[in-house]
Structure formats: C-alpha cells, structure tokens
Amino acid sequence: MKPSQSAQKAPRSRLLTNPPHWTTVLALVVLVIIVAIAVFAPAVANFEPTQLNAMMRLKPADDTYWMGTDSYGRDLYSRVIYGAQVSLLVGAGVSIGALVIGLPLGLLAGWFRGLDAVLMRMMDGMMAIPGILLAIAIVALTDAGLTTVIIAIMLPEIPQVVRLVRSRVLSTRSETFVDAAVLLGTPPLRLIWRHLLPSTIAPLIVQGTYIYASAILTEAALSFLGVGIGTETPTWGNIMAEGRLYFALNPWLVYWPAIVLSLCILSINLLGDALRDRLDPKMKGRSI
Amino acid sequence: MTSAPVLSVRDLKVVTTARNPAEILKGISFDIFPGETLCLVGESGSGKSVTSLVSMDLLPRGELAVAGGEVLLNDEDITKASPSRTRALRGSEMAMIFQEPMTALNPVLTIGLQMDEVFRAHRDMRKPERKAAALEAFESVSLPDPARIYDSFPHQLSGGQRQRVMIAMALALKPKLLIADEPTTALDVTTQKQILELIQRLKEEQNTAVLFITHDMGVVVDIADRVCVMRHGEIVETGKVQDVLSQPKEQYTRDLLAAVPSLTPRKARPQEGQEKVLELIGVNKIFSFQSFISKLLGHEEHSVHAVNDVSFRLDRGRTLGIVGESGSGKSSVARCILRLEDPTSGAVVVNGNDIVPLRGQKALAEARRAVQMIFQDPNRSLNPRLRVGESLIEGPLNSGEARAEAMARAGDILEIVRLPRESLDRYPHQFSGGQRQRIAIARALMMSPDVIVADEAVSALDVSVQAQVLELLAEVQKRQNLAVLFITHDLRVAAQICDDVMVMQRGKVVEFGPAEQVLAHPQHAYTRDLINAAPGRDWDFAKGRNIGALV
C-alpha cells in the first residue's frame, strides 16, 4: 500500500514542488513582459500609434523612432506595442469563449447518447469547413470589429473543445463510481457536475493555451489578408500586411511585428507544454 | 532430485530506486530442479512477481534494481549477464507466460506471424520449417485446428486458446525454465483446469522446470511439487506441498490457509418469516448490435441473449448466490435488477412494485434506495476526487436529507464497518483495498437498503482480507436483516455465505436450490463440471487434510 499511496498523492503537490525547466521560466518571463507592455501601452509607447507624420515616412530606426516608421510616418515601435493589446485580447476572448461554449456541449454529448449523435454530426460539419475560410466569411458578412473577429476565430475552435471534453467524459463514465452514483439516485446534471466535470478540467486548461496561441496567429493572418481589424487599430497582423508592400525598402516593417508575434506564440506554447507535463505526466514529451 | 538445479536464487535483494529506497525482496533463496514445479504463493505486495521479473531480467529499469545476491540459470548469473546475453536466453533457455494473454499478444498481427518471430529470432530455420514447427507447437498444446489458429488474429480466439498460444510460444524452443505468473487468474475455472493440466503434462514430457506464481491455494494444490510462501519480500516457509499444507510450521501460513473458504457448504440457516423483498419474473435481456447502415440494408440483427428467462425470489435476511463463468449473464442479471440496463422483458419486483416500466431517476428513487450495490473493484467504485464523507452522503443528499444530519449518520455507519470516524475527511487513496471495500459497503448502508447486490465484491481482494470483508457483510446482514444477492465465480465463497445458489450458463439458469444441495449434490452436468474444475477441490485448507476420498 505504501508505494501506491505516495504515487497517488503526488498529483496534488507536483504542481508546486518540482522546479520548472528553464525554458518554462523564460517563456513565463517573456509572456509577463508582453502582457505588461500591453497593459501599460500608453506609458511605454513614445507616440500615439495613429499619429501621422508625412515628413517621416519609412525612416530607419534612430533615437526617436526606435523601430523606424511606416509608410504613413507612424512610429513602428508604438504600433507594435499597441498591437499586443489586440492580440492578447483576441487570444483571451477566443480561448475563454471556446471553453465556455464547448465544455457544456461536450459534457452533454458525452453523457446523453441521443444528443451525442446529433451534436457530434454538427461538430463534424463545422470541422469540415477550413477555420480561416469560415472566419473570412463571417467577417465579410458583418463589420470587422474586435468582437466579430473574436467570434469568427472562436467558432472553428469549438468542435475541438467539444471533442476533447466528450472523449474524457466517455472514458470517465465507464468507471464504476459513475454507476455507483446512478444507483445512489444522483440526477444526471448533478452527476455530470460532481463526477464527470472534474476529470475534464486539466486537459481543458492545456487545450486552452493552445487555442490562445492559435487564435493570436489566426487574428494576425486575418489582418494580414485584410479582412481583420482595420488599420486604424494596429495589430501585429495588419502592421505586417502594410509593411509587406515596402518590404524591399525596409524589411524591418515586417520583421519587428513578426519577431514579437513569434516570441509570444512560442512562450504560450511552451507554457502549455509545461502545464500538460505537470497535469498529465503520461503525455510528457509528446506533441498534441 | 539428484541433478543440478535449473534455477538457483541466492539471497536475492531488490530495492526501489526512488530517493528513499525500500526493500522489495529482502534476501530470498530457492532452487528449482528439472521436471519440478515450484509455486510462489503470497498475497499482493509479497514480491512474488518481482522475483519472476528478476529471473527473466525484466525488472522495470529506473524503478527497481537488484541490490545483492545472485540468480543462477544453469550456473550463469542472470543479474550480471549483459542485456544481449539475457535476450538470447529469454525464449531459448527460459520463457514466461503472463496473466492476461490478450495484452501479451499483439492484436494486429496473426498468431502465426508472432509464433514465426520466436523461431526467427532464435533459430536458423527456413520459412517452411518454421511454419511446420509452429503447427507442431500448436498441436502439442492441444489447440484445435492448428492451421486455422496459425492464420487467426488474437481476438478471434477464446481466452483459453490465447493462453494455449502463449504457452506454445513459451515452450516452442524447449526452454529449461518456464515462469508462469498467474497464468490462469483471468480465466474461467473450467478453462483454468485445462491449462493447469496442460502445463503439468508439458512439464513431464519436456522435463521443464516450472516457476509458478499464484495467489490461489487451490491452484497450488493442483500444480505444485514444492511451495514457497512469501510475505513482504521474504520467504516465510518452504517445503513439499503436502507438508506445507498439512503441517504448516509458521503462523502466517496457518492464517493464510485458514482464510481459504471451504468448498463444503455451510449448514443452512433457519429461515425466519418469508417477507419477499425482490422477485424476478421471466426476465430477459437481449443486447442487439446493429448499425444504422446495416439496418437500412436490412441485414440480419446480431444479438446476444445475455439473460434468458430468469426468475427467482429473495426473502429478507437471506443470501442468494449466483454463480457462473464469464459470459454466463450473472452480471447482466444484476444490472437489470439495478436498472443500469433495461430488461428486454419480464418483471423486476422490488418490495411489491414492478420497477421495469419506471423511467428516470425520480421514478426509480424508491427502488434505488431499496436495492444497493457493492462493486468488484473498490479502487474504481469510489470517486478518487471526493472525500469519503462526500461519497457516503451523496445518496442521502439526493433523497433530500440535510447535510449535517447525513454526515453524522455517515460517521456512525463508518464505525459499523469498523473504520474510524475521522475517515470522513480522507480520500479513498489513503485506504487499503479491504478498507475501501468497507467504505463501499458503508455507502450502500447509508441508503438503508433492503437488498444488497454484491457483484464479485471480494474477488479483487487478498484471501485474508476477503475473509474479513465477508465476515463484515454477514454481520451487517444480520444487523439490518438484509437480503443479499451475491454474484461470484468462486464456488468456495458461495459455499460459505449463501443460503441458496443459482447456477447460470449462457444466460440461462441451469440449477437453483439450497446451497447444500446444489454444491454437495449437483444435479446438472454443468454444475458438476464447475465443481470438478474448482482448483484444489480435494483439499480442506483450514483442516489441512485431503478430503478427496470423501467427496
């Protein structure tokens, strides 16, 4: 009994005891800096991100314009910093939205077998449409505001969450403690809440980080394609889209937002991996 | 035995490689000679499986390590041999068969291909020769139609056939040593009997030394020449099987033997009153498997008649045993009574009400209270994330009892099952298997049931723990005047606790009557087969004597 006791106790403390890998620490530091920059953007930025200066078009980096200026003479450094706001907001909106909508659907699909057939065919249908195409269609049909973009990116993510939650529910419901709860007269909704929901939380948190990263990337892609948020609100994607035209003149117009975007995505994914290893040691070293 | 031992284990020590190393084997020694079966017998955690893994050089790397002693196979020390050397020895000089033949075989390769692999790895043979050798090996383990087996996939064979294939593979290269780790534990008794006879016969034909690991004293009687009783990584007692069983020297061996239930049914209890609490009338359960597409195409429905016209009644205070092998439908009967499955037809009458037409948890509330269940595996039947108290009060809360009141009652009931009241605040993993089963019993008692259905409730427990749990069950039955429906494959357990016994085969009741009559004077051929196949049936363990002549 002794060894199995300690083995089972481990999950409670593992999150806190083992020191994290240095890449995890680095990723956390980078992400904290990016978040801080986004929150305190007005203080960190040197200019208003939309302030035009016709005299200062496409200047290289110097003491005033730390990353140079774009084709309208706007300060690239300030725009990249304000761009973090949109990216992080979109990531948070999409991942929270997808989890909030996907979790209950997955729980219900996993437990009520009749509902499952209908719901999962709908999800299959949604997954058959390429996510970015669906997002473009939605944005094209409405106006390209922040909310629209969030919804457009979130919709294709929902089936992934539903499928993940459903598969966890299906494996947990074969445990005899679920049968035992049925025999104790526990009504279905309370049973799902007490016995099935807890086992879905850990993989869901991890999935959330991946959705967060992919949402930022998709938003950048939408902006780059010109169907995202308008250029009056700077995002990493639309900065790159504009810079693309002057790539030959000043490649840093694309490089700077690209570097920050990559760092941000990499950090989130590294944190997601670390979280997954902690919550589910069996998955260690595997990619999703 | 004058020849040299095949396997000689000397003062073997194995430790865990964690930060605080714990000794798993504390210096054990034994020899096995050609043509001899040595049984290692002990309860879970005694170190018997670790012993077999060391002998095969299969210790999980990074978890366990040999800390001292030697394991000599034909005078060659396995613990010091190189990995490539032990790889060559495995298969040719020593072979192993495992508990679960399904997981030991690769499900996506044919049996023939997996058998072929054995010859290809160790022998320089051409393909037709290898196939001929494989068919011969299947023949020698009495597999029917070796050519068909050769082309089959593992899932197309029965459990017994798969274990025969494993044995054929293990013995294909005529190893000097066969290690069998609980090879019959996952099999039905009648299949178990055949496999034990097969191992016995092959041992004699090939003069193999067999290291046989089991927890079942009955199996020991049937197969062992000598026996080592193990406990906590030490050998408590060793000797000829007859000697150890009839004159055990150590107290632990005596306790272990005394805990083995006798096959002789206990005296029937006088029946007081005849208050019917549960009755089944012509219950049928047909599982049908048909996909939407095949329904459209009008294909014939594939169905299994799991429960076929089962009727019985159970009175307050009585114990009815349902015995049968896997697939006999005994668990399906339980699931129909508990309405975890909906019976296809028939009536399940609980306290005078037919519960079959009822739908939904609200309608079934009264039946749920009246009939409670204890499951086989207490590790899985308690939610690991909930404190014991929360698990215990779940049912009462559902029926509207106040939380504080229910919790107080839960404390009382824990004391009835002899666990301290403080257990309420602990998690299931902080308890041993036997204690967890007590918690499961407490959870059932919280509902003040009239009937308890125990589905293989002691099958996952060690024999000494099993005895304690059965004792507890008998005690609460008497105290609360409960009716118990006890489902088991173990005739010994049935003989000791049941008033009536119902024998099931392929969904049908083949024999039903008082335990004394069914088990001592079986009428149906299948019941007789079951009793004949019960391992160690000629031996009364508690009294330490052979009763074969009496039966």
Task: Please provide the count of β strands of chain A.
Answer: 0
Low-confidence stretches of chain A: 1-14
If classified by CATH, what would the architecture of chain A be?
Orthogonal Bundle
* The first-level CATH class name of chain A: Mainly Alpha
Taken from the alpha-carbon principal axes, the silhouette of chain A is elongated
Identify the CATH homologous superfamily of chain A. MetI-like
Count of the domains of chain A? 1
Number of helices of chain A: 11
Number of strands of chain B: 22
How many angstroms does the end-to-end distance of chain B come to?
A: 33 Å
| CATH homologous superfamily caption of the largest domain in chain B | P-loop containing nucleotide triphosphate hydrolases
Task: Outline the structure in words.
The complex is a heterodimer of chains A (288) and B (551). Chain A is 73% helix and 0% strand. In chain A, helix 2 (22-39) crosses helix 4 and helix 4 (76-111) packs antiparallel against helix 5 (113-128). Chain A contains eleven helices and no strands. Chain A starts with a helix and ends in a 9-residue tail after the last helix. Chain A has helices at 2-14, 22-39, 41-44, 76-111, 113-128, 131-141, 146-173, 176-183, 188-225, 236-245, 252-279. In chain A, 40% of the residues are buried. Chain A is an all-alpha fold. With 551 residues, chain B is of the alpha/beta class. Chain B has two domains: 7-258, Rossmann fold (3-Layer(aba) Sandwich); 276-520, P-loop containing nucleotide triphosphate hydrolases (Rossmann fold). Chain B contains 22 helices and 22 strands. Chain B has a six-stranded mixed β-sheet with strand order 6-7-8-3-9-10, with helices on both faces. In chain B, strands 16-17-18-13-19-20 form a six-stranded mixed β-sheet, sandwiched between helices. In chain B, strands 2-1-4-5 form a four-stranded antiparallel β-sheet, covered by helices on one side. In chain B, strand 7, helix 8 (189-206) and strand 8 form a beta-alpha-beta unit. In chain B, helix 8 (189-206) packs across helix 22 (525-533). Chain B starts with 6 loop residues before the first strand and ends in a 5-residue tail after the last strand. The chains are: A mainly alpha (288), B alpha/beta (551). Chain A binds chain B through residues 1-5, 8-9, 175-177, 179-188, 190, 194-195, 198-199, and chain B through 16, 22, 45, 338, 340, 361-362, 364-365, 368-369, 371-373, 375-377, 380-386, 394-395, 398-399, 429-430, 432, 440, 443, 447.
